[in-house]
Design goal:
This protein is of the alpha/beta class. It contains twelve helices and 14 strands. The protein has helices at about 105-115, 155-170, 195-210, 210-215, 225-230, 240-250, 295-300, 310-330, 345-365, 375-385, 385-390, 405-410, and strands spanning about 55-60, 65, 85-95, 120, 170-175, 230-235, 255, 260, 270, 270-275, 275-280, 290, 340-345, 370. The strands form four sheets. Strands 3, 4, 5, 13 and 14 form a five-stranded parallel β-sheet that branches. Helix 6 links the parallel strand 6 (about 230-235) and strand 7. Helix 8 runs parallel beside helix 9 (about 345-365). The longest helix has 20 residues, at about 310-330.
């Protein structure tokens, strides 16, 4: 995970963000998403409006901070009677971190160019330096053990920079937990509910204490309270979902994406929205394929990550076309959200990264399409009349309403609850 350049530390924490965070500039480490923050021009000689007071409140050692509401997070709206639902597409990244490939920063830019936001599932050990590895005490393993390694200060600084900018741009930071243990002999599929709670607590702690663990005390904080930001996850290798969801529900999570679904409207499991990845057409095959780069790779080149170079272009096209066929099936059919999972990896010459970029470019700017994070999708689902969602769930894969959307959803839904549409109950974390 070592990056090629070291991020410059922000000098003054109080200058990290203005109250709105819209123009957050972090010293020499990055820039915000809007203008200079000056007041609008008035009559000649008028003074500009005063800058808003800082809303930054450091948490713990200053690794994270409360900075107010997340910028660029749209307010969810309840469907009107007879209104066709939008086509949601969620692009998500397992173990998100910035290394010498610079794929995190690259896809941030891809998102911005195509009116998209995404979910980045951070592996907590990517914010833990190698020399502090013994701080990680994984369930059923010895201290300091991890199947994906740890990081160095340079890699941590670069990853923090990307997480900071991603959140300020409206993206979501979830978790992929820590050591990524799969299979028998202590894999996540064998963990108890209490072991999952311990793993989650450690994943949070590594995010909340990266300054202490690296000594970068003058660096700018991550601009969110991770205890509130963290509302969902994907388990390693899609294992351990049963006990994880029990633990997650008790901890106030709002969704899980660790299973395999068909392209139908989601429901709840253990009180969480089940936003698992889906099966889509696999060009050239009679069976369908999971919407994840790793699974395409395994069905193309086996467990080797660098197969026959002469096949790279074909394999990438195959993944792209399968995802696009799945998109069209939903877009012209039941409008079920399309859930896609990926890794910042250059498997088979980076062909899957090229495929994903082409899918983003091909779908996110289409009419009635919203490329969103899991948080945004969960907010929208929470804002809907349950009876409307029940009706949407009656539609099968690729099935559009026979008489059209207006008569299908024309029944008057129950009035929206008072307050912000989509807000979770008061006793659940956001």
């Amino acid at each position: 995970m070592a990056a090629t350049q070291r991020i410059a530390a922000g000098a003054v924490v109080a200058a990290v963000c203005a109250a709105s965070l819209a123009g957050c500039g972090i010293g020499s480490t990055g820039s915000g998403s809007s203008g200079s923050g000056e007041g609008a021009a008035g009559s000649q000689g008028a003074r500009p409006a005063p800058a808003p007071k800082s809303a930054v409140r450091l948490i713990g050692d200053g690794s994270t901070a409360f900075t107010g509401a997340q910028p660029h997070l749209p307010r969810p709206e309840r469907l009107k009677p007879g209104q066709k639902p939008p086509q949601f597409v969620v692009f998500s990244w397992d173990g998100a971190g910035e290394d010498s490939q610079k794929l995190f920063s690259h896809f941030r830019e891809v998102s911005k160019r195509n009116n998209a936001t995404m979910t980045y599932f951070l592996s907590g050990v990517y914010l833990l330096p190698e020399e502090k590895r013994d701080l990680y005490r994984p369930p059923q393993h010895s201290p300091g053990r991890s199947d994906i390694g740890f990081n160095d200060d340079e890699g941590i600084a670069e990853t923090v920079k990307q997480l900071r900018l991603a959140w300020l741009e409206g993206n979501e930071v979830g978790t992929h937990f820590n050591g990524h243990f799969c299979g028998e002999g202590g894999g996540v599929g064998e963990w108890s509910v209490e072991e999952w709670k311990d793993e989650i607590a450690q994943a949070k702690q590594f995010v909340k204490s990266w300054k202490t663990n690296t000594g970068m005390r003058d660096a700018a904080p991550l601009p969110f309270d991770y205890d509130k930001e963290l509302i969902g996850a994907r388990t390693p290798c899609l294992e351990g979902q049963k006990n994880f969801t029990k633990a997650a529900a008790e901890l106030g999570f709002r969704y899980d994406t660790s299973g395999v679904n068909n392209q139908v409207w989601p429901g709840r499991k253990e009180g969480l929205w089940d936003l698992s990845m889906q099966l889509v057409p696999f060009p050239g095959h009679t069976y369908e394929q999971l919407t994840m780069d790793y699974n395409f790779m395994v069905n193309q080149s086996g467990t080797t990550t660098q197969g026959d170079p002469s096949q790279y272009e074909y394999w990438g096209d195959q993944m792209r076309d399968g995802l696009l066929q799945g998109f069209e099936r939903a877009y012209n059919g039941n409008r079920a959200p399309l859930i896609i999972g990926n890794h910042f990896e250059s498997w088979n010459g980076g062909t899957y990264m090229r495929a994903i970029e082409e899918v983003v470019e091909g779908v996110c700017t289409k009419s009635e399409v919203r490329c969103v994070s899991f948080r945004q999708l969960a907010d929208w689902l929470d804002a809907q009349d349950p009876k409307t969602l029940d009706k949407l769930r009656t539609l099968k894969v690729g099935q559009a309403p026979q008489q059209g959307w207006e008569p299908f959803l024309s029944a008057s839904p129950a009035p929206a609850p008072k307050g912000v549409p989509g807000a979770p109950p008061a006793d659940r974390k956001q």
